[in-house]
Amino acid sequence: MSRPKFRNNASVRALQTASVILALCLPAASASAEDSCGGDYVCIPDDSAAARPGQSSAATTLAKLAGQERCTEAPVDVTAASADERRLACSAANDAIQLLGRCGISLRRPLHVQIMSEVRHPFSGAIFGLFDIKRERVLVTQEANIPSLVKDTPYAKLPQRDFYKSLIVHEVVHGVMHQNLKRPATSHAAYEYPAYALQIESLPPHVREEFLQSFDQTAIKADSTIFNDSVLFFDPYYFAARAYHHFKASPNGCAHLTALLEGEVAFITPPQM
Length: 273
Known about the structure:
Elements: H1 9-22, E1 41-42, H2 55-65, E2 67-70, E3 76-80, H3 83-101, E4 111-116, E5 119-120, E6 126-127, E7 129-132, E8 137-141, H4 146-150, H5 160-180, H6 188-202, H7 205-212, H8 217-220, H9 229-234, H10 236-249, H11 253-262
Parallel strand pairs: 1-7, 3-4, 4-8
Antiparallel strand pairs: 2-3, 5-6, 7-8
């Protein structure tokens, strides 16, 4: 298989480690939807703050001090320090809900989005954001943290505000899909496919094209596209580009998303146990 133009060795090493650690959260086929997790679709232990030690109380304090408001566009509650952050989060959440709505997948109950000073994966370091399935909340890092997080990735060359809005879309897609799950998937790739496909879809056309041009076009447009956890963990950016193209090139991309809610699909291979 042709490899993407973009490659970062440090990221690959980190992702190799993450693939082993996150496997601990992978649901068994008989697990309930409430117990499933994968990628940034996370099962957070009750004693974890998804942050560095001591951030649990800090996060609680932030939630109390920061403004919280219900979006006018959708039944989404946003907690953030500034009105600008709340407006942006509401706009992004509405975009995600509208994209999924085209496929007949809707928000079943109010979702909470929280913009935090920092978000950390419970098993690793600082990340863009995550969906906490126990509390049904989206946690997203503040926009000020984006430059350091996107350094040496294909996202670095994209307009910051456009990319930041798209990552909120990504996490909200996780939230809405979670509310509609009928059977938990058995791979991280199955959880991340819709989030990445719609994240890239949500970008302005010229920004989306700039992102896609970071990769070998023959590779991302290959007809025999198979998704798996190895591709996701070794190169999530490449996974995102392939997911978007596969979704858009399909005669009925929405059918892929609804099938994922039911369980396994032919284009995603289960992990080898």
